[in-house]
Write a structure and sequence with these properties.
alpha/beta; six-stranded mixed sheet; 15% strand
Length: 315
């Protein structure tokens, strides 16, 4: 591979990593996450953005927390959850917020939120529906609240969980610019019951599917402004003081995300450039810099096809 080709591809991967890191730093800010909660979480729809910001527990915001640190049986176990295919599973951003509907001056009820930015809506290795993964994350969040189960376990302590996913790429055309809520609802099969909603309304999954062009709906316009690092547009939705940490992180993101996505689409049309990208991925896997599963995901191939081409290339 020509040196300049290798350098340009390495820089593209490096920029992608930096973009992901900066993206998470931006979304870790309460001011940035508040408009999204107002759009998708029913508990906050009647709140002002300032009220939502005050509800979010800033000290609870954690980035890339292993799901296994929220163990289903033993508290403070400190292990990382590993799926059957040996891939570590981590929440992108995890935090708690006060439930403004159920809380009062005497009782504090929290909402647990997992927020994920998913670049590939159609994972290939293994292939699975994003909504199933989201439901699993939410279910783990519920189970983690109880610690070790005993005869005296108080199930009344379970608090509501949200798993919110922003999906950017490979969204089928018919699903682009859609937001879907998956929730627990009550259905009386025989007779009528009056159980309080808070006793069963404990888990919601929200999938936000962006399109190649943002719709006129506010949530898509807002997300577009974030991923395009458009500070002027972002300020229409959230207060970002000049010189603040949020502004600095957005500036770091400037141009990276969309440039990387568009570059990937362009290079995919050129077999020569695709081969150059693959060769770099092969090298990174060979020297242990990149895990096979990560390389496969970056290549947009199946694991079998990737391994075959890697073997054919002499790696």
């Amino acid at each position: 591979m020509r040196q300049e080709t290798e350098e340009s591809m390495a820089q593209a991967l490096l920029n992608g990593q930096k973009y992901d890191e900066s993206c998470k730093e931006v979304f870790k800010n309460r001011e940035v996450i508040a408009p999204i909660l107002k759009y998708v979480a029913v508990e906050f729809k009647d709140c002002t953005q300032e009220e939502i910001i005050q509800c979010i527990d800033a000290d609870s915001i954690k980035e890339e927390i292993p799901v296994g640190e929220l163990p289903p049986q033993v508290k403070d176990q400190g292990t990382e959850m590993v799926a059957v295919f040996e891939k570590s599973i981590r929440y992108d951003i995890h935090f708690k917020a006060k439930n403004p509907i159920l809380s009062d001056e005497n009782i504090l009820v929290m909402i647990h939120v997992d927020f994920e930015v998913q670049n590939n809506y159609k994972p290939a290795d293994p292939e699975y529906p994003i909504v199933k993964r989201a439901i699993y994350y939410a279910a783990r969040e519920i189970s983690s609240q109880l610690g070790k189960l005993t005869e005296k376990t108080n199930y009344a302590d379970i608090e509501k969980c949200y798993s919110i996913w922003v999906c950017n790429e490979n969204v089928p055309k018919e699903l682009q610019n859609t937001v879907t809520r998956y929730s627990m609802v009550k259905e009386d099969l025989i007779g009528n019951t009056n159980e309080p909603k808070q006793e069963y309304d404990l888990m919601e999954v929200v999938i936000i599917r962006r399109g190649k062009e943002a719709s006129e709906d506010d949530i898509f316009q807002y997300l577009e402004s974030i991923f395009q690092s458009n500070l002027e547009k972002m300020r229409e939705y959230v207060d970002i003081p000049s010189g603040s940490e949020i502004e600095k992180e957005v500036v770091r993101m400037t141009g990276m995300g969309q440039t990387i996505y568009e570059r990937g689409k362009t290079e995919g049309k050129s077999e020569g450039k695709l081969e150059g990208k693959l060769e770099l991925l092969f090298e990174l896997v060979k020297d242990g810099t990149l895990k096979l599963a990560e390389a496969v995901e970056r290549s947009s191939m199946s694991e079998e096809e990737f391994e075959q081409r890697m073997k054919k290339a002499g790696y």
